[in-house]
Design goal:
13 helices, 20% strand, alpha/beta, 50% helix, 13 strands, 7-stranded mixed β-sheet
Length: 363
């Protein structure tokens, strides 16, 4: 009878229409939650879901040098004193002033002084200016430790080392050279980022000779030397203004402004708390291969979301007309409301099952 037919059609269509938003609503969140869980297993902590989505569209990766491309464990490899044979005095003075600092270069200077058995004095009125150096009073004298410009003479054969000048009461007493080896896994990670079609640029506060040498040895697409924390942030904003999707990776206090300004900020888990707070993703091991994992994870997650949305629309696009009786005039087929409910449950299961495949993603 016509009333029964209409009743069945209305019920079937109602079931599908009510269930359709449920299936579509599962398409994105299930994939993102599964992707975040898989990332955590691989050492990539996703703090913000949108960071995982934005990462897939990135075009340029800006990377800090010290502690990100390099080990972050520099060692003093040369001392040049203008005091004649005063190397020990120069190193002791610098180490005394650097004691309160947490910067990797500062720790290296202090450790070298301790290794040589030098007696250190207390540092008073300590001040650190990110990207420039530190200042303190040691034994009543004002001591300043800061970076050396490229015009300064290198220490011996360490032309590509990081140089810091030691100044006392406005007079430069000498320079220290510190070498920080590139991480063994960095070349592999850079090569993989290039294979993913990304432009990779190093941004560092170090002097030009050092940064250029690192960039050339790793085959990077560009480099910026002598960059202050504020300038790093400006570089990110300039690139974004030109339409680039910028990812910034760093580990230090100096990197926090750039991490916050980037499309996606990636912090090394071995870095400072400030850097990790400013970033959207954190690499637990501080290994650049983690960035490669993050990109693979992001792209796989976005691909899964698109698949889920396609199948959800496709499934409902076919199901609702059938439930409405589109096939009845030709084949006499109707969709029982109970079968409509089962069909929609299966569509939700398909979406969830497809998303759960991310758990087996090889990273």
């Amino acid at each position: 009878p016509a009333p029964a037919l209409i009743h069945a059609l209305v019920n079937a269509v109602a079931v599908l229409i009510i269930a359709c938003p449920c299936t579509l609503g599962l398409a994105t969140p299930v994939a993102i939650v599964t992707g975040i869980g898989r990332g955590a297993q691989a050492g990539v902590l996703v703090k913000h879901a949108e960071a995982l989505e934005r990462l897939a569209a990135a075009t340029t990766v800006l990377i800090d040098k010290t502690g990100t491309l390099t080990e972050g464990k520099p060692q003093v490899v040369g001392v040049q004193s203008l005091l004649g044979d005063g190397e020990a005095e120069l190193l002791g003075l610098a180490a005394s002033a650097e004691q309160p600092s947490e910067h990797p270069l500062a720790r290296a200077i202090v450790q070298e002084a301790q290794r040589r058995g030098l007696k250190l004095e207390a540092a008073e009125s300590f001040q650190a200016e990110p990207g420039f150096g530190v200042e303190a009073r040691v034994g009543g004298r004002r001591v300043r430790i800061g970076r050396v410009a490229d015009a300064a003479a290198p220490v011996g054969d360490f032309a590509t080392a990081t140089l810091v000048a030691v100044e006392c009461e406005g007079v430069i007493l000498g320079t220290l050279a510190l070498a920080d080896p590139i991480k063994a896994t960095t070349p592999e990670a850079i090569a993989e980022l290039h294979r993913l079609g990304l432009r990779v640029v190093v941004v560092s506060g170090d002097r030009e000779a050092t940064v250029r040498a690192v960039a050339e040895s790793l085959g990077l697409d560009g480099w910026h030397a002598g960059v202050t924390p504020a300038r790093k942030q400006e570089l990110v904003r300039e690139l974004r203004a030109r339409g680039e999707r910028v990812v910034f990776a760093g580990d230090g206090l100096n990197d926090a402004p750039a991490l916050a300004a980037a499309e996606v900020g990636i912090a090394m888990g071995t870095g400072t708390d400030v850097a990790m707070q400013s970033a959207g993703l954190v690499l637990v091991k501080g290994d650049l291969r983690g960035i490669v994992k993050a990109f693979h994870l992001s792209r796989a997650t976005l691909r899964t979301i698109r698949q889920n949305l396609f199948w959800a629309f496709f499934y409902n696009g076919l199901g609702i007309p059938v439930a409405a009786g589109a096939l009845y005039p030709f084949f006499g087929l109707l969709l029982n409301p109970m079968l409509a409910g089962v069909a929609m449950s299966l569509s939700s299961l398909c979406v969830v099952g497809n998303a759960l495949r991310l758990r087996r993603l090889a990273l």
